[in-house]
Amino acid sequence: MSRTIDIQKSRIGVVGAGSWGTALAKLLADKGFAIDLWVFEKEVREQIETQGENKVFLPCARLPKNIIPSNDLERVVKDKDLILMVVPSHFMRDVAGKMKDFISPDTVIVTASKGIENKTHLTMTEILAEKIDFLPQGNFAVLSGPSFAKEVARQIPTVVAAASTSREVSTYVQEIFSCSTFRVYVNDDPVGTQLGGAIKNVLAIAAGICDGMKMGLNPRAALITRGLTEMNRLGAKLGADPLTLAGLAGVGDLLLTCTGALSRNYTVGKQIGEGKKLDEIISEMRMVAEGVKTTRSVYNLSKKLGVDLPICNEVYHILFEDLPLEEISERLMNRSLKHELDGVIDS
Question: Helix 290-305 crosses helix 190-212 at what angle (to 10 degrees)?
Fold first, then answer.
């Protein structure tokens, strides 16, 4: 960020009008910002324009008139001080490439999308930095933490983290988003912040499977705790700060998505635990459950790096290899005995 920006006069574009993008656009608009919102679907743009509501992805949330929806990506991102990316992770590369020619050289780009790209195993900021390669590394930031879109839209108190390699940028993002119902902390670890937000979706599927199978509360507590260990194992290999994963973007988001019925990933897992097939579940969903695609990324990345992630790997076997659910507990419980922190610290 090469120039001083008046926070109140910041020009903001939000790219993606799913439930989370719409909720964050509403939060910013409620603060008084004029928000240009890129909408992929024509029907959603028309709903917001004529009815002041995104009935498809965030029904029952009245949207302020200072949210201007558009299907024109150039209009939304051109001449902006801050661009918030909230597209599904598997669309990030394509959308970033289409934006590149319209981005100002000092724009701050914040991703609130959670995932790891399947083929490259890159995080969202890494994809953005690769596609929009003229921006300084510090101009890319992450917004993540325990936050359901519906609750943010209802102005229920929420606390998240903003991360960038530039403290100036993360503080700018903090000031842009913070209000009386949405508190933002900063950290300097975009890697850990993104890993936490991605892996927790895989673990939420696992938690949903446990609950769908009515396995009880003990297994879910164990799954969350050991899931955090797996998050730390992969984080340690990729240079994440373990304190980040012990914070909002790690354990905070993990607890929310593994126990909250509003989580799409938990819901997918619960339906699988109840006997439904993945293809059937996905065909009935309009919104994206990021954990499904992220499961493939995490599985392949763990094999590439030689990191032991037994819970995440079992989710992969269930989703993509149709592993019988009855084998899950036996396979996990009968693994070789070891130190609790193996793979996280030297023991």
Answer: 110
Long-range contacts of 48-51 (CB under 8 A, 24+ apart): 48/17
Q: Return the CATH fold of 8-188.
A: Rossmann fold (3.40.50)
Instruction: Identify the sign of the CA torsion 114, 118, 124, 128.
Output: negative
Respond yes or no: is residue 131 known to be catalytic. no
Catalytic residue among 80, 200, 270, 293: 200
| pLDDT exceeds cutoff 80 at 1 | no
| CATH of the domain spanning 192-333 | 1.10.1040.10
CB 228 within 8 A of CB 245: yes
Q: Which of 99, 102, 32, 44 is nearest to 69 (CA)?
A: 44
The three-state secondary structure class of 299 is helix
**What's the pTM value of the predicted model, to 2 decimals?**
0.95
Contacts of 168 (CB under 8 A, 6+ apart): 1, 138
Q: Encoding tokens for residue 266?
A: 């938990």
